[in-house]
Amino acid sequence: MLPLFLLPLLEDLTLYRWGQEWDEVRMDFISRHKAIVFGKPWEWPDRTVNIKRLSLHYPFVPHKIVSKAIRCCKVLERFECSGIHAFDTDEEWYTRIMPALLEHAGTLREISIKEHRYSRDNDGPEYGTAKAVHDLIHLRVLCVPLYILVGHEGLSLASDNSTMQNIIPKNIEKLIIHLYNDAETDVEKYFTDLYLAHSNGHFSNLMEICIVMKLERPFLLLGVQSFKTRFAKNGVSFNARIVCQDSKPISGWDSTSAELS
């Protein structure tokens, strides 16, 4: 995969299961030392790669390698990642790649993060948080699970530094929030906080909010219409998408969905 980053005319790169063929020992060696490409030790280019849109689906590579891939891009406009495979030593995955994304604060327009299998009660990885997206002042579209946006412990909303106003980028136009985590409770407070911030003059470019939730989540079947009405008064579209997810363990992720209006 690494030579793809050297293609001079490539602007859009999508990788599926990057690193799946590597065992954990070799991956650790590559992250700490250098891979061999074309018979020579691999050197990551320094902000000279022309890739503008980078998408990683089910990556097996450590966060260190992903961070280097992000940093090698000269002008990154869109970053997408889903279904990470994090080892025990690779916790806080999204927290650790955020510094690399922040180096593109002047050009990043869209970030999409999708992680569907998470519960604070299971043995899965700790994905970390994307709170640092607040500093991406040119970001227009953000798609992210709520538990990654606000962090593992959530927000108390009791402190001025723990509000949605201090997490969501100020120039956001479209916000897509995933609510797949069974451990999420009292999520209404986050959208109420967002509504109050918007009513007080923040997020002046916000045009659309979409929530994506499991069919069995009772939250919003009752709350969607209320938020839809409230945000409509501010000129913001508020919609919901219900996803029916196959509960069987599968390599990918299959679902059907329906829009609520």
Notable traits:
261 residues; alpha/beta; 2 domains; nine-stranded mixed beta sheet; 11 strands; elongated
SSE blueprint and pairings:
Layout: E1 12-16, H1 24-32, E2 36-37, E3 40-41, E4 53-57, H2 63-71, E5 78-82, H3 93-102, E6 110-114, E7 141-145, H4 146-150, E8 174-179, H5 188-199, E9 208-214, H6 219-233, E10 237-245, E11 255-260
Walk me through this protein's architecture.
It is a single chain. The protein is elongated and about 60 Å long. The protein has helices at residues 24-32, 63-71, 93-102, 146-150, 188-199, 219-233, and strands at 12-16, 36-37, 40-41, 53-57, 78-82, 110-114, 141-145, 174-179, 208-214, 237-245, 255-260. Helix 3 (93-102) links the parallel strand 5 (78-82) and strand 6. The chain has a nine-stranded mixed sheet with strand order 1-4-5-6-7-8-9-10-11. Strands 2-3 form a two-stranded antiparallel ribbon. It contains six helices and eleven strands. With 261 residues, it is of the alpha/beta class. The chain has two domains: 1-108, no CATH class; 111-261.
Query: What strand line-up does the widest sheet have?
Result: 1-4-5-6-7-8-9-10-11
Largest sheet: 9 strands, mixed
How many DSSP E strands? 11
Determine the strand fraction and express it as a percent band. 15-25%
State the domain count. Answer: 2
Helix content range: 10-25%
Poorly predicted runs are 119-124, 247-258
Q: Could you tell me the radius of gyration in angstroms?
A: 19 Å
The run of helices and strands is EHEEEHEHEEHEHEHEE
Shape: elongated
Q: What gap, in angstroms, lies between the N and C termini? A: 43 Å
- Structural class, from secondary structure content? alpha/beta
Mean of residue pLDDT values: 81
Tally of DSSP helical segments: 6
